[in-house]
């Protein structure tokens, strides 16, 4: 049995268990770790119920997990806080602090809106039952945990006020060879072009993550990228293997940040992480992912490079003698390609360079490597787009496959993927140097300090 299957059967609160928890509020209800419980609850709220697109959902994940980390760390005090460190006792309930922090970021307060105030009727019974099922030992520890969690949630919501979410869209460049424009078949526009102007969570500015940019249209490097994707990324490719096709569709999971959070819940179980370690892990990876997406979107609208489907159909305008147009070319990511869950596959409705999936996945993979101190951690994951499971022996194996998969899908030039991976790695390295540093406490070394020094 692979770790993810075992984790699903033994560690995750299923919707049925959640409903049971709401109904009976029993203190004997089996649960996983509070951090992974509320990561799953938050994922449902962000992705399933709110329907946020991936490049918006990643910001919400970061806010929830950043507040959860500060709540748990305020009690453990093993690492530097992200935003705040409310006063606490070591006996205060970390579980109550976790639930309160996540819940309040999601629904907010009477005087400070959360991410999804309209979901309070759904989330309130889940939260109330969850809190009621927690032990209160010593007496008052549960209430103290709630106070701490609410304080860190309030700090997060306050810190992210007027941070650029939902702001104006960047100005699009006039149509020209190499410049992005909406693509067939639906000619859609980016639902959240403002993401690149959101204030980062970790790095000082999005501009510091600027990539080298796409290849010049007349260059040999551009022709190499062009001819690779024209062949292997075509809907009718004769060189793409069945496994490559599966990988391309697999990584087009309906919400890649949610997929990576599923992977991390599995890793939390397989690596036997405790609540303190989980709070730090989920905060690190989601904050890194958020800044990688912010930097990526800022870079996308700086370069505004065209997608392969446009480039291949209009290759007679690019001035490159080594590219040949095909006005009828279609990528693998076409509505006619079978998938197991809607929506159908299409070229994403925003510029090519850099690749968003590579930006986010690189930031997460390098953060996981930094957290565990090794690349050699195997995992399996299930995609709700291909409905297949893929397994990896190393974290870096997944990132390498993602870079390839976006080419196999016909939606990104390889340079967009490789430079996106560099951008994500920069965020992970900045985070490692500047945040979540262990704190020495006289006469005591926490388990989180031990894992940080592995």
Quick rundown:
The protein is mostly helical and 454 residues long.
Beta-strand share of residues: under 5%
CATH architecture of the largest domain: Orthogonal Bundle
Major sheet summary line: 2 strands, antiparallel
The total number of structural domains is 2
The helix tally amounts to 16
Tell me the CATH topology of the largest domain. Vanadium-containing Chloroperoxidase, domain 2
Structural class, by secondary structure, is mainly alpha
Give the N-terminus to C-terminus distance in angstroms: 27 Å
Poorly predicted ranges: 1-31, 442-454
- The total beta strand count reads 4
Cα-atom Rg, whole angstroms? 22 Å
Query: Looking across the biggest beta sheet, what order are the strands in?
Result: 1-2
CATH class of the largest domain: Mainly Alpha
Approximate helicity band: 40-55%
The ordered H/E elements are HHHHHEEHHHHHHHHEEHHH
Integer average pLDDT: 92
Per the principal axes of the C-alpha atoms, what is the gross shape? elongated
